[in-house]
């Protein structure tokens, strides 16, 4: 289960979620027209478009509904009201992205957003409306110049959108949904074209699926870090598989840390939505000081990276007296008590029901208590590089949603633009996939099992049976190291320490057959992600957006107004976008 909650927010029961119509263990190879890896917003939206044009298989690693989409609280940003305008949404997106937003991709995002959200409404997504007028309610989050964020069930927007998309997908007979499948490898032909994937089911059965086009919609990688708002499925599987197959991976140094995850020893890093600050919550340090005044004129609604770093600095231990033991971190709080006069607890609980229910477990009330917070890894701006249609640098392979780097977020994503990106670019990728030629197995090297997987996770020559305890221990060590040395505040010494640690952990993991279990595959993928993030962060010798280097604290447009690109083990290069 995710660390951000202990309940599947989409409310899908395991029984209802077991929708596969394939008797899995009976089949070794299967052919479909289109294959979608992931069933969050991007994957489901793509599958719905593809369904009119052939057989679609959409797979997900856990039960349906368990994806980052389902945990998105605040909402979906879209310029749909008379008072708003897509040009303003574009300008806010661009300014949050700190000089690296791809102009055309962002124009597409804001212009195609309203009709795509219109479809969601037609398909029964129930966004919150004013009881008096029936108008859609809109909130505001950091770095937005307007109230333009639609929300559902108060603070459960992603779960509601996921529910509506899944219900729509389930009406399409051409869509087959298969849960509990880990994608271990991409399958390529002799010309490097991606023609399928290898899957590992939780019951141990293996399946090769061939398709004329494959879409990666497998989400992000918060599990690289010890503190994350993401569910435990977010292990960067799609990015790692694409990298192994030779795809260009871009902007991996840009990891967004959400400023306000719940911070209590032993409790999960539950997301405390930015919408709380949008509705007027303040941040206070352990002296009771409203400290954002010292950091940014937009105070609590400053861009996310600024607020996250400010909280980190306010929470740092005080210098210890010479020779004394190191001090402990100091608490930082969200404070809504001043809102309680205008909105008593009942109203706050109605606006934020999920958050209120979570806090109640720890005896906390939004209207009465200071809520301890700290930043946590939240969203990866980088990923598999794509063009405006989800095409990657590998023929046959597409990507959409958090796994992709469309360039739309630049160095720092504007709050609540991620659901919109999944929706808009999921649909665009699907449209482009329709133009792919039929599956052609002419250029496939003969191999045992008929189809050769290339670029897959490495099976050791002398594989150990995966030992769950050692896999978990390597994973935890990696997460802690990434948090310490490749997290919010970075420098060359720390990043080099992180690379050394990743190398050592990769050595420890080498005897484990990485394709033998979901946990082993995830560990191999997390090691790839950690190395990609750290190498790119070391190469970018400046500070920009979510990437902050203590040793290079200024933005350097002369040298780094470009995207980092990693292909295989080649040195990181900085370039205009490849695609
Ligand atoms: C939040 O509700 O604060 C998260 C929204 C987002 O990450 O865009």
Brief digest:
By secondary structure, this protein is an alpha/beta fold. The protein has helices spanning 14-17, 41-50, 68-71, 86-96, 103-122, 157-169, 237-244, 274-278, 304-314, 345-351, 353-360, 418-433, 468-485, 492-509, 518-539, 557-560; strands at 29-31, 34-37, 56-59, 76-77, 138-139, 149-150, 175-178, 181-188, 194-201, 206-210, 213-216, 249-250, 255-262, 282-284, 332-335, 370-380, 383-385, 397-399, 404-405, 563-566, 573-575. The protein has 3 domains: 30-218 and 234-242 and 394-442, FAD/NAD(P)-binding domain; 262-317 and 327-376, Succinate dehydrogenase/fumarate reductase flavoprotein, catalytic domain (Flavocytochrome C3, Chain A, domain 1); 452-539, Fumarate reductase/succinate dehydrogenase flavoprotein-like, C-terminal domain (Methane Monooxygenase Hydroxylase, Chain G, domain 1, Up-down Bundle).
Polypeptide structure, described:
By secondary structure, this protein is of the alpha/beta class. The protein folds into three domains: 30-218 and 234-242 and 394-442, FAD/NAD(P)-binding domain; 262-317 and 327-376, Flavocytochrome C3, Chain A, domain 1; 452-539, Fumarate reductase/succinate dehydrogenase flavoprotein-like, C-terminal domain (Methane Monooxygenase Hydroxylase, Chain G, domain 1), CATH 1.20.58. 31% of the residues lie in helices and 15% in strands. It has 16 helices and 21 strands. A five-stranded parallel beta sheet has the order 7-3-2-11-18, sandwiched between helices. The two termini are 36 Å apart. 57% of the residues are buried. The model is unreliable at 1-27 and 448-454 (pLDDT under 50). Bound molecules: succinic acid.
């Amino acid at each position: 289960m995710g660390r951000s909650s202990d309940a599947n927010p989409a409310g899908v029961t395991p029984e209802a979620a077991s929708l596969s119509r394939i008797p899995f263990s009976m089949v070794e190879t299967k052919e479909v027209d289109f294959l979608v890896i992931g069933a969050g917003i991007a994957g489901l939206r793509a599958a719905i478009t593809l369904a009119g044009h052939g057989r679609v298989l959409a797979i997900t690693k856990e039960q349906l509904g368990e994806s980052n989409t389902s945990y998105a609280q605040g909402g979906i940003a879209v310029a749909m009201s008379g008072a708003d305008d897509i040009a303003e949404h574009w300008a806010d997106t661009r300014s949050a992205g700190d000089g690296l937003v791809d102009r055309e991709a962002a124009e597409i995002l804001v212009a195609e957003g309203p009709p795509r959200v219109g479809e969601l409404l037609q398909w029964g997504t129930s966004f919150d409306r004013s009881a008096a007028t029936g108008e859609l309610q809109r909130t505001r989050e950091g770095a937005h110049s307007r109230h333009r964020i639609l929300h559902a069930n108060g603070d459960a927007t992603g779960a509601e959108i996921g529910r509506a998309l899944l219900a729509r997908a389930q009406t399409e007979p051409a869509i087959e949904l298969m849960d509990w499948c880990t994608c271990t490898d991409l399958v390529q032909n002799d010309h490097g074209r991606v023609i399928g994937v290898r899957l590992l089911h939780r019951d141990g059965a293996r399946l090769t699926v061939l398709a004329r086009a494959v879409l990666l919609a497998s989400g992000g990688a918060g599990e690289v870090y010890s503190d994350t708002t993401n569910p435990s499925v977010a292990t960067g599987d799609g990015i790692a598989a694409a990298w192994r197959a030779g795809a260009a991976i871009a902007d991996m140094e840009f990891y967004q840390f959400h400023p306000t995850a719940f911070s209590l020893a032993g409790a999960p890093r539950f997301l405390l939505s930015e919408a709380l600050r949008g509705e007027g919550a303040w941040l206070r340090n352990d002296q009771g000081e409203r400290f954002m005044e010292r950091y940014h004129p937009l105070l609590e609604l400053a861009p996310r990276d600024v607020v996250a770093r400010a909280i980190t600095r306010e929470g740092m231990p005080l210098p210890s007296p010479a020779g004394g033991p190191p001090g402990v971190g100091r608490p930082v709080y969200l404070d809504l008590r001043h809102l309680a006069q205008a909105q008593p607890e009942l109203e706050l609980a109605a606006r934020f029901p999920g958050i209120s229910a979570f806090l109640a477990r720890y005896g906390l009330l939004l209207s009465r208590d200071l809520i301890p917070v700290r930043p946590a890894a939240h969203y990866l701006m980088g990923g598999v590089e794509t063009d405006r249609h989800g095409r990657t640098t590998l023929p046959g392979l597409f990507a959409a949603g958090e796994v992709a780097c469309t360039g739309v977020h630049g160095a720092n994503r504007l709050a609540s633009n991620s659901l919109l990106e999944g929706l808009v670019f999921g649909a665009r990728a699907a449209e482009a996939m329709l133009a792919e030629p039929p599956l052609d197995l002419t250029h496939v090297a003969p191999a045992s099992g008929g189809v050769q997987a290339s670029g897959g996770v490495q099976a050791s020559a002398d594989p150990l049976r995966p030992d769950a305890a050692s896999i978990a221990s390597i994973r935890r060590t990696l997460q802690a190291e990434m948090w310490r040395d490749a997290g919010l505040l970075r420098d060359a010494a720390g990043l080099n320490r992180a690379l050394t640690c990743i190398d050592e952990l990769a050595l420890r993991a080498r005897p484990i057959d990485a394709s033998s279990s979901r946990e082993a595959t995830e560990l191999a993928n997390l090691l790839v992600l950690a190395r990609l993030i750290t190498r790119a962060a070391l190469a970018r010798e400046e500070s920009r957006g979510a990437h902050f280097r203590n040793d290079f604290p200024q933005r350097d447009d002369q040298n780094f107004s470009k995207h980092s690109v990693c292909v295989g083990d080649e040195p990181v290069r900085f370039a205009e976008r490849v695609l």
